[in-house]
From TrEMBL:
Membrane topology value: Multi-pass membrane protein
Record-given protein name: Rod shape-determining protein MreD
Keywords assigned by UniProt, alphabetized: Cell membrane, Cell shape, Membrane, Transmembrane, Transmembrane helix
Bilayer-spanning residue ranges: 12-39, 51-67, 73-93, 113-133, 139-160
Record-level GO BP terms: regulation of cell shape
Organism: Xylanibacter ruminicola (Prevotella ruminicola)
Keyword Kinase applies: no
Location of the protein in the cell: Cell membrane
Transmembrane is among the record's keywords: yes
GO cellular component terms listed in the entry, alphabetical order: plasma membrane
Gene field: mreD
Family, similarity comment: Belongs to the MreD family.
Length: 166
């Protein structure tokens, strides 16, 4: 369990640094920004304490908010993503699998991992940009930002997972 916490801490810091220093400055087609830090919420093990999932997701979101000048936005949506992961992992994982099953391509398989991460990423991006805009007057721009950001984020998540699964 101590190794797991060290690995989670390293992932926490590396995703924070990558998002703040690099990915916040990437604007694909002028609308999409990869929000890779949602990967932190996706990769928790099934038996990880829910309170720790929620607190760590909130803290990562809070630090992203501090460095990105989006007060409360990332922290609230990251907390929702952590909550969704706890329940979706139980729905998607095979019933006869181990209790400490980690969410990865290696353990879940490609299709189940893409389903889990795609749903959480789409939920995250839709809520993130809905709260950021706080109106639906320009709904096409909101949909474009959500869709392009979700696709960019999924591409990065699958790239990282393909490297990690080897």
């Amino acid at each position: 369990m101590k190794i797991e916490l060290v690995n989670r801490l390293v992932m926490f810091v590396s995703l924070l640094v990558a998002q703040v220093l690099i990915l916040n400055h990437v604007h694909f087609l002028g609308v999409g920004t990869p929000l890779l830090y949602v990967y932190f919420a996706i990769t928790f093990r099934r038996n990880f304490p829910k309170w720790l999932v929620l607190v760590s997701c909130f803290l990562l979101g809070l630090l992203i908010d501090i460095f990105s000048n989006t007060p409360g936005l990332a922290s609230s949506v990251m907390t929702i993503a952590g909550l969704a992961q706890c329940y979706l992992m139980n729905l998607i994982a095979p019933r006869d699998s181990a209790e400490d099953l980690a969410a990865s391509i290696k353990t879940l398989g490609f299709s189940k991992f893409v389903t889990l991460s795609g749903f959480i990423t789409a939920l995250y991006c839709i809520l993130f940009f809905a709260i950021e805009a706080f109106n639906f007057f320009d709904i096409l721009m909101w949909l474009a930002r959500s869709l392009v950001s979700a696709v960019l984020t999924m591409v990065l998540i699958l790239a990282i997972e393909s490297v990690r699964s080897r």
